[in-house]
Amino acid sequence: MRFNYSLSNPSQNEFDSLPRLTLLLSYGNKEVEVAGLVDSGATVNVLPYEVGIRLGGTWDDSKPHIRLSGNLGNFPAIPLVTTAKIGKFDPVRLVFAWIMTDAPLILGQTNFFMEFDVCFYRSKLEFEVMPKSS
Hints:
The chain is mainly beta. The protein is built from two helices and nine strands, in the order E-E-E-E-H-E-E-E-H-E-E.
């Protein structure tokens, strides 16, 4: 499936466009539609605190903490495993670093890029997502 790069704010121009993907996350019996930044430079998937709460997650400090780096390195994060549905593709399990701040939702190497093959066509402001090859 091909998707267009998008803006986070209508006042931006096309140079600010980024590869954002809309997906349906499920956890327990709750579902939330979200847009995530497809980021091949991110080591892990990152889930904002508010989205985890909307999914019915319960913050548990006894879970192992995930050490993040960069701008998110000062915030606590714990693992949260969800089911993700993208378009017509079969649902997959995505593991997130659920972070206790209002960060963007990021789809990174572990484990979005382990579940999907992604091709970026920046000059066309498009990207393609396909289920991983067997």
